[in-house]
Every structure is written in C-alpha cells, then in structure tokens.
Amino acid sequence: MNELLQAILGKLDRGDSPDAKWPDSKGEYWALCPFHPDHHATNFSVSERGYNCFACAAKGSLKDLAATLNISASSVDVLRCCQGGKATFIFSGPISLAAYAEAKKLPLSFLKELGLSERKHRGEPAIVIPYYNQDGQEIATRYRISLAGSDKFRWAKNSKVQLYGLWRLAEAKAAGYVILVEGESDSQTLWHYGLPALGIPGADTWRKEWAAYLEGLTVYLWQEPDGGGEAFAHRIGESLPAARVMVPPAGCKDISEWHLLGGDVPALVQRLMREARPYSELRTEAVHQEAAEARRKAEPLLRADILEEVAKLCRDLGLVGEERNAKLLYLALTSRLLDKPVSAVVKGPSSGGKSFTVETALKLFPPSAYYALSSMSERALAYSQEPLCHRMLVLYEAAGLESEFGTYLLRTLLSEGHIRYETVEKTQDGLAPRLIEREGPTGVILTTTWASLHPENETRMLSLTVRDDPHQTAGVLEKLAARADGRGPQLPDLEPWHALQKWLELAASREVTIPYASTLATLANPKAVRLRRDFSVVLNLIKTHTILHQCQRERDAQGCIVATLADYAAVHDLVIDIISEGAQASVSATIRETVQAVAELSRQGQQPVSVSDIAKKLEVDKAAASRRARVATEQGYLVNMEDRRGKPARLLPGEPLPEEQPVLPSPQTLQEKISGFTPLSTHQHVNSQHTGPHADITANERFYVDLADVEPTPF
Fold it and tell me: How many CB atoms lie within 10 A of CB 51?
C-alpha cells in the first residue's frame, strides 16, 4: 500500500462502522469526511487515486489531504509498532537516531555501540551507518535519510558497496555459521539477540568475491517472501550453492518485522535453520519444474520444422520479404547456448528495415536470451554488471560502438569468450590496480548502414543485408496498409516460442556430433582463406539447428545428438551465398547488378557514372544506390574517380566480377560423397542409429526416415 495513504488512514475516523469491509471491492476506504461535520462514513472515500466527498464535494490528491491532516508528505518517516497482532505504520517528524531506534525497537545505546550517529547530509538530518572492515577500520559510510518510502539511503562520497558487519566476522567464526540478510537493520536486530549475521545492502549488490569472507562457515540466506527475496537468494546462491535458504513463515517479511511483532526471534531462527535446505537443491527442483512446464508448452514446436515456423510467425508479426534473415537471426540467437555463439551484423540503408527485422526475431525469445542496447560507451563492456554468459548482446546501430577501444573489447569478447581488463582505480589508499572480468561466451547482433565494420570484427560475423528493391518496398507498404485498415493478422501467441528457448536454456541437451564433418571439410574449397574461420560458423549453425530439432534426432552411445544431412541442408541454403561472398568467391546479385549497370552506363569505362544515374537505371532510391555503390567500391569492383571529399562520386568499373565458385558442397554432393544414396524427399532426415522399420539402411545412408518413426527424446 502507498505509505502516504496508510498514514492518512491512521488519521481518519470510521465512525460507527469500523467492522465494515475496508477497503471495499473497488479498493476505496470509506470514512467520516474531515472537511465538514459528518456523521455517516458513506460520504467520503479515499484511495491511492485521491479523495472525494459526495456530501461537501471536497476532492483532491493524497498530498492535499495529507496537508489537511497535518501529515508532511515530503519528510515524514515511518515508525513501526505492534498493534492488533501486526506491524502498522505511524508517521512522525524528521529522522533521528532516537526515531530509528523506536522504529526498529532496538536500544539507542546498542545502536550507538555499532557506531550509528546523527549528521546533516546535504543540509538534511540523516543517520550515519558506518561500515568497518575486519580490523575495525571504517571503509564506507551509508546515510539513512528517511524511514519511509523507497528512497531511503545514500552512500557517502568515495564509499563503495561493502558487506555490513565484517568487523563481527570473528563471532560468526566462533559460532560456525552466519546468516545473510538484506539491509543493515535486520543485521542489527540479529546482533541484538546474539546471532551472527552480515548485511547485504540491497538485493542486487552481492559480489561473488565476497564469498571468500565466508569460507569455513555454514551460510544461511534469509529469503524474503517476494520477487526481491528470490533474486537475493539466487544472486548469492550462484556464488554459494551450498548456502542454506531460510524461508520465513507466512506474514513475516524479514527478521525486523518478526521482532516488531513481538515474536521469539531466537526460536524462529533456530527453527528456520533446522528447516533450511541448500540453495543448489532448491534450485535443481525449481529448474526441473520450470523446464518440464516449458517443454509442455513448447511440445508442438518440438515436432515441427522450426525454421519454417519461424518464417511463418515473422510474417504474421509484420515482417515482409526478410524470411531468410529472420531464420538466420533465429539460429544465431539460439547459438548463444554453444561455447562459440554465432554473431551477425544486419546491413542496409537507413529506413531499410534492419532494426525491425532484428526486433521481430527478438520477439521469439525471452529477455534472458539477450541484452539489447541502442548504443554503449567504449568501456561499457568492461564495467557493466549485466550478465552476458550464454546471452546475445544486441546493439542497434554499430556506430554506437565506433571507438577503437570499444571494438577491441567486443572483438576480445567474441574471440576469447571472456574479457580480462586490468585498470587502475583511485582508492582510499591511493591508486590501485583492478582486474575486471566479464564471463562469456557471448554473441553479438549488430545493425549498421555502413558497408563494412572494422575488418577484424567483420570477419567474425555473418553479414546479412536487408532488401532494398522496389518490390520489397511495395510489400512493406501493403503490409502497413493492411494493418491500418484492419486486414492484418491477429498477433500470434509467443508463449510456446519463449517456452522452447527456456527449455533449451534449462534442460535440453547441447552436445552435438556431426558425423559427416570430415567429409564436408574435404569437399570445401581450400582456396577460400576466410573459410578457415567461417567453417566453424557453419558447423555451429548445424549444431544449433540440430539442438532445435533434437526431439527428432537420434543420440549416439555417448548421448550426443546426431546431426543429420537435413541439418546441413537447412544451413547451406541460408548461408552459402553469404559465406561465398565473404570468401570473395562470389558476388551478391545486387552488387553484380550494380556493377553491370555502371559498365553499361559508362560505355564500358569511358564515362564516369553518378549515383543518381545508377538509381535511375536500377529503379531504386538514391540511398539504396549509394550504399550498393559504396559496397562495390570497397570490394574493388567499382572505382571512384572523384578524390575530393564531399563531392559526388564519379564511378567506373574496377576489377572484373569473379566467376561463381562454390566454397561449400551442395547437400546433394555431400550426400553422394558419403554414400551415393539418392534422396527420396526433402522433408525427411537422417537417423544414424535408427532401429525401426528402416533399420536395414546403412549408417551413412540413413538420410530419410519418416518423423512418425522417431520418438521424442524423454525429458
């Protein structure tokens, strides 16, 4: 409840109907009106929306009513006391150590022994809460500026987040255990009863390096009964899986509240310690239940051709003509589960639909799968606290990361799978080195209008280009018109898609074997040097496709999912031109078309051509033509004869366009190389250890087995 509303309710007179339902079904509290002599508690109502009297027409906000009742909404502080068997709020004047002691029902002398005192903070009264290290030296200071509301604390200048109570660790060592609670007041309450405790100043402030303080101790976590309590236990439990979780009884949020209610704190703590279970055990149970529920919701997708379902869903979400890019983005985002995720950059002219394509693909994933930003500072990758392990970093517009240091950090994260960045920071003891580590693996999805990225980053990503032709623009306009006049499709249900990814995260197998990998390597074009890097990308995409379809695949003796030739066929169709262009063994249709247009317009190199001429020739807008020309120029197939900056380009043909050279074999060629077996259907798949009606097919020939013969992998 709004704390100001709670203070107001404490001042209102309910007349002769105190037993009436309060609030009513609409969340309104009825009482005697304070603005006129009132004898009926049915005229005046108050709620979080404000107040209204139907007798005297008084009406306004809670702040107005608080002023009438002499309640200061800006500086009042909450005190707790025990009335009617539950903790209630009483408002008083400015904050003071005495008020804090009364609010927490702790002796004033005891709080002073802990170092608490009063001081002005920015001209306002505040309580000083010192943080001492194990030697008793003050290492940080926190101000409590209010007893009410969510904005109650300030850190002193140059103070860094620390554990509260380090100077009392010797007591915990002697007892053999310690209770971790959220905040200083719960720690103080436990100390008052002689119980060893440490305070975490906020549910999200735990640092994994603090675990070193607790070595040799049995650690108990007090988990408050809300989402913040779960986050608190989870964050610490990830560092301390053996920590035992204490779950308070219904109606008790924290240890201070139990103390305020007059409960027997030592007895409660002893009981909860006996009942506490290890975080790892509780987490395993929770994950199992969550994964089972996710699989149940995702079951229809697990039996389908998932990439075709992706294309259909993206069309329903409004995406036009970008099904291939959507499929590749879906595979790339799912590859976050691998040790080496696949990264991609989506290129195209301004307003070409790059961001919308990425946003559409992201709708198929839960927030746990990615971290999206419009831009970031050059050191954000090093200093951010956002988890990136097995997660995709999505950056809309690569220009938001154009600094040399920023691209270096990005490249390191992609190549090494983690960042180890050592810097120097100013501390109370002077300058000191600090090693910052960010754990991966992490993949990246970028969008850009640039023709190419930093060369070292470009070669680490699949380069996807959105369509810029008139037919595509017409399709987009038609889709927008359909949405505007109500002809668009109903928004699809995304829950099964999120459930699929959640199941893959929590419980699905990620170990894949590709039995034809060596043959594929033998058939690849060895002249394509970049294929040394891109071949790994292809293999990881095959693995990702296999993981997605694992309920339709066999397992080998080691339990690995066996990739089929169908997995290669799906990936080959999506990436063969991208891989070929990256290896300079092929040129995209749009660039080839652009170069040929320049050749024709220039009369075979005799007369320079402008971007406007190209746009008119190809019937595209000038922005699309400019980008195409820029790409062709960077690749050497066009030459810009204009060397003055800011002047329109004067283009002539450059190097001859290369003949098309396959860098990877077709699925048919790969299959024939393996077995000479002729495929029966493009909708069936390999099963390397099938024992059903097709068991007479040899291991290398088992390309096509009806899906009805394959049982889903048991959970």
Answer: 25
What number of CA atoms fall less than 13 Å from residue 619's CA on the CB side?
Answer: 6
In which band, very low, low, confident or very high, does the pLDDT at 2 lie, cut at 50, 70 and 90?
low
- DSSP symbols for 290-314: HHHHHHHHHHHHHTS-HHHHHHHHH
- CA 628 – CA 621 distance, rounded (Å): 11
Residue with tokens 């975490």: 200
Return the percentage of the chain with pLDDT > 70, whole number: 87
Longest CA–CA separation in the chain, Å: 101
On whether the CB atoms of residues 19 and 10 are closer than 8 A, the answer is no
Query: What is the dotted CATH code of the domain comprising 95-275?
Result: 3.40.1360.10
- Rounded to whole angstroms, the Cα distance separating 418 from 409 reads 9
What is the pLDDT, as a whole number, of residue 18? 58
List of E strands, 630-690 = 638-640, 651-653
Give burial (CB, 10 Å; 0-12/13-18/19+) of 429: exposed
What amino acid occupies position 173?
K
**Is 9:46 a contact under the CB 8 Å cutoff?**
yes
Q: What is the pLDDT of residue 16?
A: 66
What is the model's pLDDT at position 78? Answer: 38
What is the secondary structure of 688-714 as a DSSP string?
TT--STTTTS-TTT---B-GGG-PPPP
d(CA 301, CA 368): 20
Specify the CATH superfamily of domain 301-495: P-loop containing nucleotide triphosphate hydrolases (3.40.50.300)
Distance CA 476, CA 576 (A): 26
Strand ranges, E, within 166-314: 177-182, 197-200, 218-222, 244-246, 277-278
Q: Are 470 and 455 in contact, with CB atoms under 8 Å apart?
A: no
H or E segment to which residue 170 belongs: helix 169-175
Q: How far is residue 586's CA from residue 661's CA, in Å, rounded to a whole number?
A: 6
Query: In angstroms, rounded to a whole number, what is the distance separating the alpha carbons of residues 699 and 597?
Result: 50
Alpha-carbon distances, residue 54 vs 13, 16, 24, 47 (angstroms)? 17, 19, 16, 14
* Per-residue pLDDT at 19: 54
Domain ranges of the chain: 3-68, 95-275, 301-495, 512-584+662-709, 589-653
CATH for 589-653, among 3.90.380.10, 3.30.450.20, 3.40.50.1970, 1.10.10.10? Answer: 1.10.10.10
34-38, 496-500, 631-635, range with the lowest pLDDT: 34-38
- pLDDT confidence of residue 652: 93
pLDDT of residue 520: 96
Region for 391 from its dihedrals, namely left if φ exceeds 0, alpha if ψ lies in -120 to 50, beta otherwise: beta
Spell out the residues 6+ positions from residue 385 whose beta carbon is closer than 8 angstroms to its own. none
